[in-house]
Amino acid sequence: MVVQVKPNTSHSGKTMDGTQQKVEANILLLGAENVGKSALTVRFLTRRFIGEYGDIESIYNHNDKIGGREISFNIWDSLYPQNCETTESITEKHLQWADGLILVYSICDRSSFDVVRQQVHRIKQAKKTSGVSPIIIVGNKRDLQHRRTVSSEEGRLLALSADCGFFEISAAETYHGVLLVFHQLFDLIREARALKKGGIKGIVRSVSAVFGRKRAE
Q: What EC identifiers does the entry list (predicted)?
């Protein structure tokens, strides 16, 4: 079972123009250690589940097709530094690079949920002026219900309060849930790009109207 909450959006990403050129999307994965970020990434890339990983930070490329359109995913599986402040784990370089972010915690580890809460706050503060890239919060390890310390409701409430998407999944048990996370984030990225493009066009139209009026006078 996959638990999902979508953030508020003004229109569906499916209303984008019909051009079929390949689209790139930079996805940044954040979260504490041992929450399953790498397992989530590799599950999406290969459909296989691998449970054990070393301390390796990697950027992967993966080509996919969504709605008949070729998508090139660049996925930065970031490393959470030991003995550091949560805010130090997210740099300006991270935020400038990412088109969308996936913040992962383990439903069995309350401290990892607290890390995600602080990371959401840090991202929102850092991007106040330039706009926040779409974020999806993922509660992983849903297969370990007997060890749960973070309820589904807490995850939903955090996502709703920050206007983020939310999924609760098991990367170990199902590929489909992982696929939904990445595809939903791409839809949000596509929508954000459309809104930004529309905003720029609106500004250009306003400026043209002002100067056009002045010439007429």
A: 3.6.5.2
